[in-house]
Write a structure and sequence with these properties.
The complex is a heterotrimer. Chain A contains ten helices and ten strands. In chain A, α9 packs across α10. The longest helix of chain A is centred in the N-terminal third of the chain and has 26 residues. Chain A starts with a helix and ends in an 8-residue tail after the last helix. Chain B folds into two domains: 40 residues; 211 residues, MetI-like fold (Orthogonal Bundle), CATH 1.10.3720.10. Chain B starts with a helix and ends in an 8-residue tail after the last helix. Chain C folds into two domains: 186 residues, Rossmann fold (3-Layer(aba) Sandwich); 67 residues, no CATH class. Helices cover 37% and strands 23% of the residues of chain C. Chain C contains nine helices and eleven strands. In chain C, α5 links the parallel β8 and β9. The chains are: A alpha/beta, B mainly alpha, C alpha/beta. Chains in contact: A-B, B-C.
């Protein structure tokens, strides 16, 4: 590269950087304080419902959410995403984040049980969890994702060859709960295992069959404040809201269980 | 002086796009490193997914070429409003978000779709390897049809009329003139289409599901791995890229030069 | 001797074509741009379908709107030489010439037919070349050889000289006239150049706005021009004793420049 050309490159880069800087500062102008909450997709309805309560109690604080799969959010945090709070559907994700000194110790704020959802076509005939192996097509969560892991544990607890008989009917291992639910809703699958909250949000068209207590596995939802949070106080307050009476009431209304069962 | 400024500008514009396109790929390769790439080859997800991806994408490519070439040929001959409308409609699968495409495929070919309505409830294609092929074809075939159509439209109408005047049947005009003259453009279109099929993810996940050895293609395996072990997913992605790069390079070499009708 | 009989009507965009003519020999077709010359040729060829009328060749009906007859192009046995020659770029010169030789002809017979026409049009040395490596005049001769090797029952030539430069045009003109005479089949030759008309030696028909306005020998036309266009063509041709392009659309700027140069000389 000759010197003149490299000088040109430098100038252009400077220009581009300046423009980007301008754009960024225009965006970053906060009304006062911005609280960024990363949360598992299953928390969307509850968290949006809590937003007005929180903002009313904290004038000048604007809460913004980013909802996605817990694993995706974890990766974004590892790559420097500027979240203040991270609420995960899988507490196991906190260990590596803590080890990297990215989050403070988490607090468990809710649990979520499993239920069997049955398609509209089969809900009259498939009414007991024990009957699951009679379904033609079953969709479950993939073992790599939390719901799949809990599902496997739950099937194991049924004893005997129950898990093997169910897995013989499995036509797909979905990467998130919404995919399981979508396929049962569309009638392509006869039955699937999802979180209780998702079944509730899906409305009445589907059959919902409880998982027997002996086989029930509860997902533990944890929340943690990021080590370099830009709004650490507001972040702590959000955690307090979740674990306090108002948060617990909203969570319970959406079908979540209490943190210490 | 103006010429120089122009040269600099075009080069700069090109460089920006090249950086945007290749930057992430380079970053992925650098972040992965050769050891983990080597280590991942024996990961249990890899073998079946790679084999399935190869099989399904090649079947889908064959299906596209065998059905899409005649389609493009007749569309290129056709005149009138309906042909234009059909041609535009055939591009829609490309703009459809893949997950929506998957739902559409379920509604068409699933239990409550055509087979179900005709009384073959269990003839539903959903969750089968055939569904993977269908999903790949759905998203990739429009790319091939479009390039074939463009290639056929570049043929001189007078030259084709001459061929017919010399006694050539429509089939001979097609195989003896149109096809050899469009071969370069057709294989370029086929390469693009195949690459798209190989990378297909969203529609497959929705329509075919995700079951190892049956419907779990490489992109699905990568996404599945991403849920538990991002490092494995990264290594797999690099593997897919290297593999696709090699195959596209090979296709380029095998394909006749992109000579259009002179 | 076979006769090509045409009587047809076709409305297409601004053009309303209504023509009745018949010929047993090469017939030159002249007329201003948009008069319908090429359209007429394409109707006879069978790539355009007239709204009404009848086309017959030596008593064989190729098209009859009333009777619902429309013989497909490949069964009409017509030799077609389009303006830009329409050579097959992926075939050699010999391959182009062999394309229309009937499949029934095999081996030595087939080779003999091809080499006859390569010889007749002076293409033997070029037999293994591709069209991209040929000059305009050579391409034109290949197109002619290819059409004739299929032994057509009639020939349709759409401005066969239009894309040639002046020297090539002069050289090809007499060869074309000779080959057409020898072939003994009716032919329609669209041209803009009165010198071409004279060289062909036969009759000339004048098409204006979709109608046939005059027909006769070149000399008769010159003596009593039946339309302004004819008068202009004849006058201009008389002015320059040299061959001269008239009313040609400058589709090729390079060509246009060459023509202009030639005119200045």
């Amino acid at each position: 590269m000759n010197p003149r050309r490299s000088r040109l490159c430098v100038r252009v880069f400077a220009l581009v950087a300046a423009l980007l800087g301008l754009g960024a500062s225009a965006f970053a102008e906060p009304p006062a304080t911005r609280l960024t909450v990363f949360a598992a997709a299953s928390l969307q309805e509850v968290f949006r419902g809590l937003e007005p309560t929180f903002e009313a109690a904290h004038p000048g604080v604007d809460v913004v959410f980013s909802f996605a799969g817990s694993q995706e959010l974890r990766m974004q945090l590892e790559h420097g995403a500027p979240a203040d709070v991270f609420a995960s559907a899988d507490e196991a994700l906190f260990a590596p984040l803590q080890a990297a000194n990215l989050v403070q110790p988490p607090v468990t704020f809710a649990t979520n049980g499993l239920v069997l959802v049955v398609s509209a076509d089969r809900k009259a005939t498939l009414t007991r969890f024990e009957d699951l192996p009679t379904a033609t097509r079953v969709v479950l969560g993939a073992p790599e994702v939390p719901v799949g892991r809990y599902t496997a544990q739950s099937l194991d607890r049924m004893g005997g060859d129950f898990r093997a008989r169910v897995e013989a009917r499995v036509v797909s291992r979905e990467l998130n709960v919404r995919q399981v639910l979508a396929k049962v809703k569309l009638g392509e699958a006869d039955a699937g295992i999802v979180y209780a909250t998702d079944a509730r949000a899906a409305g009445g068209a589907l059959g919902v069959v409880p998982v027997p207590d002996a086989a029930q596995v509860r997902a533990r939802y944890g929340v943690a404040v990021r080590v370099h949070a830009t709004a650490p106080e507001a972040a702590q307050d959000w955690v307090a809201l979740l674990t306090g009476p108002a948060g617990q009431k909203a969570l319970s209304a959406a079908g979540f269980g209490a943190p210490a069962p | 002086m103006i010429r120089r400024a122009w040269d600099a500008m075009t080069r700069l514009a090109g460089a920006v796009l090249v950086m945007l396109l290749l930057g992430p790929l380079v970053a992925l390769v650098v972040a992965t490193g050769p050891e983990s790439l080597w280590a991942v080859r024996s990961h249990p997800l890899v073998g079946p997914a790679l084999a399935l991806s190869l099989q399904t994408s090649l079947v889908s490519l064959a299906l596209t070429v065998v059905l899409g070439t005649p389609l493009a040929w007749s569309l290129s001959r056709a005149r009138g409003r309906w042909a234009g409308l059909l041609e535009t409609a055939l591009q829609l699968p490309v703009v459809m978000p893949p997950a929506v495409a998957g739902v559409a495929l379920l509604l068409a070919f699933g239990r409550r779709g055509l087979p179900g309505r005709l009384g073959f409830e269990d003839a539903s294609l959903a969750f089968t390897t055939a569904a993977v092929v269908l999903a790949q074809t759905f998203v990739s075939a429009p790319l091939y049809v479009q390039s074939a159509l463009a290639a056929f439209r570049r043929l001189e109408p007078d030259m084709l009329a001459v061929a017919r005047s010399l006694g050539a049947s429509p089939a001979r005009v097609f195989f003896g003139v149109a096809l050899p003259l469009s071969a370069g453009a057709l294989s370029a279109g086929a390469a693009l289409c195949w690459a798209r099929a190989l990378g297909e993810f969203g529609a497959t996940l929705m329509f075919a599901g995700n079951l190892g050895g049956v419907t779990q293609t490489l992109p699905l395996a990568i996404y599945t791995a991403l849920e538990s072990d991002p490092a494995v997913a990264q290594a797999l992605s690099v593997g897919l890229m290297v593999f696709a790069f090699g195959l596209l390079l090979l296709l380029r070499r095998l394909a006749p030069s992109g000579r259009a009708a002179a | 001797m076979r006769t090509l009989e045409i009587s047809l009507a076709l409305r297409r965009g601004a053009l309303s074509l209504d023509v009745a003519l018949s010929t047993a020999a090469p017939l030159a077709l002249i007329g201003p741009n948009g008069a319908g010359k090429s359209t007429l040729l394409r109707c006879v060829l069978g790539v355009l379908r007239p709204d009404a009328g009848r086309i017959a060749l030596g008593g064989r009906v190729l098209f009859d709107a009333a009777a619902g007859i429309d013989v497909p192009t490949e069964a009409r046995r017509l030799g077609f030489v389009p303006q830009d020659h329409g050579l097959f770029p992926h075939l050699t010169v010999a391959g182009n010439v062999a394309f229309g030789v009937p499949a029934a002809l095999r081996g030595a017979e087939r080779r003999a037919r091809v080499s006859h026409w390569l010889e007749r049009l002076g293409l033997v040395a070029l037999a293994d070349r591709r069209p991209a490596a040929l000059s305009g005049g050579e391409r034109q001769r290949v197109a002619l050889a290819r059409a004739l090797a299929a032994e057509p029952a009639a020939l349709l030539l759409d401005e066969p000289m239009a894309s040639l430069d002046v020297p090539a045009r002069r050289a090809t003109r007499s060869l074309l006239a000779e080959v057409l005479r020898d072939s003994g089949v009716p032919a329609l030759v669209v041209t803009h150049d009165f010198a071409d008309v004279r060289a062909l030696g036969g009759e000339v028909a004048v098409l204006e706005a979709g109608r046939l306005v005059q027909r006769g020998t070149p000399a008769a036309l010159a003596a009593a021009p039946g339309a302004d266009f004819v008068a202009a063509v004849v006058a201009e041709a008389a002015e320059a004793s040299e061959p001269h392009a008239l009313h040609r659309e400058p589709e090729d700027p390079e060509q246009h420049r060459r023509d202009a140069d030639a005119r200045r000389r």
